[in-house]
């Protein structure tokens, strides 16, 4: 057999082409933000494309762009032009500082602001600085106009509502230190605030209007806030230690250590260490990862059939103050409309973007995982509605159920550190008891609709009459 040689044409670039490639790659390397081996302080993230495809109305702004991710979009150009009048009005409030000072301060913050975005911002220096000044002054002037009730295009109800929704989106943020710097130049707060920043109060009073989320300005330094969405997130989450151990629930921290003990015990399984054996022999507090992943609870309809009662908690500490005792679940009020949908979606997206530390629990992700388990269909939402717990302002209960059902599919939940893990165990234990399972089965089979209930009642009456007739016949 003859072996033919095949000539492979390998293109060797000329020295001129090699130089061009070298120059091109060197330019790209120089454009990479940050320094080698130094973590970037990224706080504003771009959501994956597939998340936009699932629910684009909750990810992208409808009226106004803030920051570089949606800058220049055709559908947002009307408000982009209005930003110039907002800039003029904001500068007119300051008789001491000239326009040059504002522009100079923004140039000083350019490099720091660029590093806050997860994607490289493909904007020239002048364009980026102009964007910081326009967007930052727009936000502040909007707040000030709302405070003094000055009429403006942004004061129109539907426009204002859309703007507030846009300001809640994770991709539509700018670093908080930029807004704070502009606010401080006008002397409305100190350059380095100690204690409660006056900007917190202005934002909390004039923008964050939602019945479900009880916002209170966080008692932390303004330098710790990443952006407006982060401020709202900190103001909504409970400002308290996770005290589940005191309420006979399992804390994430202690559970984490029991999980480690379980893993260590498998490693040292050949040894007969009595301490390890006792730590892993408690069935009630099993720490197997597989057991954790299997933890789930029935939906509201199934729990209702098992005898669980649902009540609205009158004075909850916060929206996460949910309890289950003696077959009764008490929950704070939850109302869902288009605004709350955007807030929930973007707050949990922000929470999911943060580095996970075992001391800090993803409480909002845990809350939405719980609601996803409870509300599977419109019937579940209707039962919570009749109990005064849930108010649906969407078109129908099916839309509300679909909204909650999507979270478990797109956001990650660490079940080894679930905030409501103890609640899950209590509900599961109650619903799986023999008595409650029999009651649920009976209710599902014979009392699920009026006709089956009538049939059961009629059959019972017929049985009683038959028994009476038999009794009297035997007595004769």
TrEMBL record:
InterPro entries, per the entry: DUF247_pln
Transmembrane segments: 451-472
Pfam families to which the protein is assigned, alphabetical: DUF247 (PF03140)
Keyword annotations: Membrane, Transmembrane, Transmembrane helix
Superkingdom assignment: Eukaryota
Classification via PANTHER family: BNAA09G04570D PROTEIN, BNAC04G53230D PROTEIN
Protein name: Uncharacterized protein
Organism of this sequence: Rhynchospora pubera
Phylogenetic placement of the source organism: Eukaryota, Viridiplantae, Streptophyta, Embryophyta, Tracheophyta
């Amino acid at each position: 057999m003859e072996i033919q040689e095949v000539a492979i044409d390998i293109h060797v670039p000329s020295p001129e082409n090699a130089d061009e490639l070298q120059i091109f790659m060197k330019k790209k390397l120089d454009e990479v933000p940050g320094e080698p081996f130094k973590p970037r302080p990224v706080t504003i993230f771009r959501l994956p494309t597939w998340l936009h495809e699932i629910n684009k109305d909750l990810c992208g702004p409808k009226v106004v762009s803030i920051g570089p991710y949606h800058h220049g979009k055709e559908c947002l150009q009307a408000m982009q032009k209005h930003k110039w009048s907002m800039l003029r009005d904001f500068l007119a409030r300051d008789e001491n500082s000239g326009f040059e000072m504002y522009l100079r301060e923004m140039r000083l913050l350019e490099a720091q602001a660029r590093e806050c975005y997860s994607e490289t911002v493909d904007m020239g220096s002048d364009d980026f600085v102009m964007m910081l000044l326009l967007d930052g002054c727009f936000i502040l002037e909007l707040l000030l106009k709302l405070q003094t009730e000055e009429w403006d295009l942004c004061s129109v109800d539907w426009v204002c509502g859309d703007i507030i929704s846009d300001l809640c989106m994770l991709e539509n943020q700018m670093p908080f230190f930029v807004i704070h710097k502009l606010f401080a130049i006008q002397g409305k707060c100190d350059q380095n605030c100690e204690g409660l920043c006056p900007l917190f109060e202005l934002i909390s009073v004039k923008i964050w209007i939602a019945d479900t989320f009880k916002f209170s300005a966080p008692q932390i330094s303004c330098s710790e806030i990443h952006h407006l969405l982060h401020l709202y997130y900190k103001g909504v989450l409970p400002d308290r230690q996770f005290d589940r151990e005191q309420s006979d629930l399992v804390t994430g921290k202690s559970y984490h250590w029991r999980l480690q003990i379980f893993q260590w015990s498998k490693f040292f399984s050949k040894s007969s260490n009595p301490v390890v054996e006792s730590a892993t022999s408690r069935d009630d507090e099993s720490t197997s990862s597989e057991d954790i992943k299997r933890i789930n609870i029935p939906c509201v309809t199934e729990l209702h059939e098992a005898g669980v009662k649902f009540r609205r908690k009158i004075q909850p500490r916060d929206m996460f103050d949910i309890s289950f005792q003696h077959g009764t679940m008490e929950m704070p009020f939850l109302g869902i409309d288009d605004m709350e949908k955007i807030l929930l979606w973007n707050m949990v997206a922000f929470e999911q973007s943060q580095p996970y530390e075992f001391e800090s629990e993803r409480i909002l992700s845990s809350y939405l995982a719980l609601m996803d388990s409870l509300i599977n269909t419109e019937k579940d939402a209707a039962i919570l509605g009749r109990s005064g717990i849930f108010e649906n302002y969407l078109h129908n209960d099916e839309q509300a159920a679909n909204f909650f059902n999507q979270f478990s599919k797109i956001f990650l939940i660490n079940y080894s550190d679930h905030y409501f893990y103890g609640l899950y165990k209590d509900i599961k234990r109650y619903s799986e008891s023999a008595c409650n399972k029999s009651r649920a089965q009976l209710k599902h089979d014979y009392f699920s609709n009026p006709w089956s209930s009538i049939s059961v009642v009629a059959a019972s009456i017929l049985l009683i009459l038959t028994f009476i007739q038999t009794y009297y016949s035997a007595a004769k």
